[in-house]
Structure prediction request, 396 residues.
Amino acid sequence: MKNKKILISGASIAGPTLAYWLSHYGFDVIVTEKARELRLGGQNIDVKGPAREIAQMMGIEEKIRAANTTEIGTRFVDTANKIVAEFPKGESIGLTQELEILRGDLVKILYECSKEKVEYRFGDQITSVSQTDIAVNVSFASGKEESFDILISAEGIGSKTMELVFGSQPDFKYLGLYTAYLTIPKEPSDSKWARWCNALSGIIYLMRPDNHGETRASVTFLATEDEYKGLSMEEQKDALIQRIKGTGWESDRITEGIKRSKDFYFERVSQVKASSWSRGRVAITGDAAWCATPIAGKGTDLAMAGAYILAGELSRADTIEQAFRAYEDKMRPYVEKSQQLPPGIPWVVYPRTKFGIFILNRLVAAVGSKPVKWLVGKLSSGKKVPGKEIVLPDYK
Prediction:
């Protein structure tokens, strides 16, 4: 297919990646984003596997490397801030990968490399969608109405466009957790190491350095699904402050950060299970289609792989239906594999009691000990290099 006018809704990671590749193949691409400017907040993400392959093809790998968060590894600490174990960058149990970047910094890089051929419209969003045999008719909050050949939602979890087109939201698999993210001022206790701390009542605190002179904090904890549903921003802040009160470590510092935060995010941790990713001339991609949650560690991989494959299939298919079918056939096995969590995850790493935390910390200390690391290294040396998680087709 050529000379098609395509609207993408959402300018996070999947949207600009998709826009880049569609424009590369000669499509007329418009991206609409409800925020008035790029949303540059967010926490650390890693670019590995298929995401790194795609970044290389886009010529942005070195830009990602240059925007590294400065993080050198992960330290597990107890509530007295004593180091339990440490895992330098690249070790499998740690959080830090070779290409570690803030979400907002990656969004900016993707926008910069696509904006020359793509029209971005900020401060507007889709309010209604109707389809005919030859077009998708879209109305916007600004009052504008326009027709497109194809509409793709890359809006993220809870996509409003998906609801307009499919008539409902997909199924959500709740993982028993709520999570909060925020940026806080850097203090002397912070370093280039990420710090992970298990606290009482099933709470995990995580502090990570960034390359902007601040610290990215997160709080994740066990909770029932509707425990904090429907709260306003201020109510969310108050509820989280009460939840972490008296749990030790740097909870007082995080409490002050919550009160002053301008980028506070608080939500349930749920996977998206959509039975179909397209209807007629409309498709969904990214978290809107398959959110695996940060627990899986595959968000960037899935977002960029899905965008690349969807654009590629649209470039070589004879019909929209063929393209959407091929996109889903190639991506769904990878999505389903990525959403599979090891037995006991996440609950096993969220002990509620002092004894449970003690046992978990002892296990982490054992895994992080020199003898165990040496043994793992010996056992893994000479082993066959694992194959790619997903083979990216060459659409040239």
